[in-house]
Amino acid sequence: MKYQYIGLDEINGPLIFLENIKDVGFEEVVTIELKNGERRKGRVIQIDGDKVAIQVFEGTTGLSLENSKTTFTGEPMKIDLSKEILGRTFNGSGEPIDGLGDIFSEVRYDINGSPLNPVSRVYPRNYIHTGISSIDTLTTLIRGQKLPIFSSSGLSHNELATQIVKQAKLSDSEDSEFCIVFAAMGVKHDVANYFRQAFEEADVMSRVVMFVNIANDPIIERILTPRCALTAAEYLAYEKNMHVLVILTDMTAYCEALREFSSSKGEIPGRKGYPGYLYSDLSSLYERAGIIKSAKGSVTQIPILTMPNDDITHPVPDLTGYITEGQIVLSKELHQKGVYPPVNILPSLSRLMKDGIGSKYTRADHQDLANQLFASYARVQEAKSLASVIGEDELNEVDHAYLVYGNYFDNYFLSQGNENRSIDETLNLGWDLLSLLPKSELSRLDQKTIEEFYDSNRAQVRFKINNSKISDEIISKGKMNE
């Protein structure tokens, strides 16, 4: 039953308060009618006895304490869903903004989602191909995983997100349907237009569902945006049996909105002013990824966040790292050197990677190759540190070889521009890089694998012909006699 109340008791920022309210539920949607007939939506976010606090989506400007009419609908916020949402663009509240009209819905789902029974979950297997070497080889994205990207202000995370949308796919041998749900929170108009135009020009918009919250939109809508996006993803995955990749950018903007909203409610702040329930709030979003027994589809998440002051211990990346299954960290140093995408592989990892690669999914040598590439790149950093102390000319031949390997790794393996590489191309490139090192340094590989893939002549020819960034002098210093 719907109840209507005339007048308000208090207005505070984006919140209105009413007293003597009965039979109202938490998260219930309300309609507020202004004196001039304008209607706005809100939801109940706090109940204290017979007093309720209501969050107004469009803001409280123009509301009157005496003449506003508040109607309680008796149900939580829901969005219209059907397979027609593919190729469409919505605002943060799930309303179409692309001028193509309303959605002819099959169902209406609560944006807060339905809790997944842990017993019904299926362990994530297999991978999603992104075409990006540093991700596919060293931090492989597994279906049903939540793998965030930690970036900083000024880095190319928007370009990376766009490239992933363009290139992401299932393996060529599968006939399952694949789509992407893309949610942008607190972005500027030019960034939102960049995303939309890039998807249309790449002819991938037909498999993308976009939710866009502009920076000057109400902060309340920013809090709803990821929930609407994840609800759409769950519908496509669990009702339509599609494999869905959800990209959420920028989660820091979401958390800033949550902090502002918490402050307006008068809640006691936690670390850095964020609400004490930030961990559980982020969990309610990130844990909406996975695979369940009753459906053939999956929901995979890539949340993107910018670390304030490049601080990885800041509450947002810190809590995100606790909840998710790894992270991809972007580097300012690599970005300044012109490397794109500037993925810093040493602090990056994918905790589920080992279960979705190998002979069944990618290639039998994938795991051992990734271990050796990572270990060798770590040794590069040691060689660089030593060179900064004693000078590069004083390094021995092995350390010179690692410097050459590191340069080629940055300029070939990491820096690929907008190239879309297959998994075989990426793995073969990794072997070419390892072939710049002496066999004695490949301690993470067994002899049989080395004999099958190691070829120092092929590596030297390939890099000498194609690379203009590294001088012959440095190459010659890195040569080793076997």
From TrEMBL:
Main function: Produces ATP from ADP in the presence of a proton gradient across the membrane. The V-type beta chain is a regulatory subunit.
Superkingdom as given in the UniProt entry: Bacteria
Keyword Repeat carried by entry: no
Organism, scientific name: Haploplasma axanthum
Protein name as catalogued: V-type ATP synthase beta chain
Family designation: Belongs to the ATPase alpha/beta chains family.
Keyword vocabulary terms for this entry: ATP synthesis, Hydrogen ion transport, Hydrolase, Ion transport, Transport
Location of the ATPase F1/V1/A1 complex alpha/beta subunit N-terminal domain: 10-74
InterPro entries associated with the record: ATP-synt_VA_C, ATPase_a/bsu_AS, ATPase_F1/V1/A1_a/bsu_N, ATPase_F1/V1/A1_a/bsu_nucl-bd, P-loop_NTPase, V-ATPase_su_B/beta
Iron-sulfur as UniProt keyword: no
ATPase F1/V1/A1 complex alpha/beta subunit nucleotide-binding domain sequence ranges: 131-350
UniProt gene name: atpD1_6
One Pfam short name: ATP-synt_ab
UniProt-listed PANTHER family: V-TYPE PROTON ATPASE SUBUNIT B
GO terms, biological process: proton motive force-driven plasma membrane ATP synthesis; vacuolar acidification
CDD domains: ATP-synt_V_A-type_beta_C, ATP-synt_V_A-type_beta_N, V_A-ATPase_B
UniProt-recorded Gene Ontology molecular function terms: ATP binding; hydrolase activity; proton-transporting ATP synthase activity, rotational mechanism; proton-transporting ATPase activity, rotational mechanism
ATP synthase A/B type C-terminal domain: residues covered: 355-454
